[in-house]
Amino acid sequence: MAGKESGDSRGEVIHQEAVNAAKDVMLDAQTYTDLASLLRHFGDPNRLRILQALAHVELCVGDLAALLGVTKSAVSHQLKDLKLAKLVISRRDGQLVYYSLADDHVRSIFDIALEHLNE
Questions:
Q1: What's the rounded Cα separation, in Å, for the pair 75 and 62?
Q2: Taking all residues of the chain, what is their mean pLDDT, rounded to a whole number?
Q3: Contact in structure between 92 and 40 (CB atoms under 8 Å)
Q4: Could you give the strand order of the β-sheet that contains 96-101, starting from the edge strand earlier in sequence?
Q5: What pLDDT digit, counting tens, does each position of 58-110 carry?
Q6: What band does 3 get if pLDDT is binned at 50, 70 and 90?
């Protein structure tokens, strides 16, 4: 879109119908903030590795640490972040806590992003 010459950095509307169509599907500002917050959890390679592993099998912190080659502390930190984002859930069995994906939506987000990357 072309900008106005008067120093205003906003673009002027060139195709009003297209702008109106886009405006009809725009969400409220808080939804975009919430969505950005959710998607940032997919922005760390170790969190992605954890999510991929948990998409296939339930694992405890020690097993995830061994699988990823990182400390238990590092895994626990990432799992706390993922759990707060409601991307993983946990269950206790004696002294061990096992983690799995919260639901199939998490797997779908990962799979779609990977499919896009591989196109």
A1: 8
A2: 92
A3: no
A4: 59-60, 96-101, 88-93
A5: 999 999 999 999 999 999 999 999 999 999 999 999 999 999 999 999 999 99
A6: very low
Tokens describing residue 99: 């983690």
**Would you call 2 exposed, middle or buried from its count of C-beta atoms within 10 A (0-12, 13-18, 19+)?**
exposed
Distance CA 75, CA 64 (A): 7
Contact assessment for residue 85 and residue 74, using Cβ atoms and an 8 Å cutoff: no
Give me the domains of the chain, ranges plus CATH numbers.
16-117 (1.10.10.10)
What tokens does 1 get?
A: 């879109």
**CA 91/CA 105 separation, integer angstroms:** 19
pTM of the predicted model as reported, rounded to 2 decimal places: 0.82
User: What single letter denotes the amino acid at residue 109?
Assistant: I
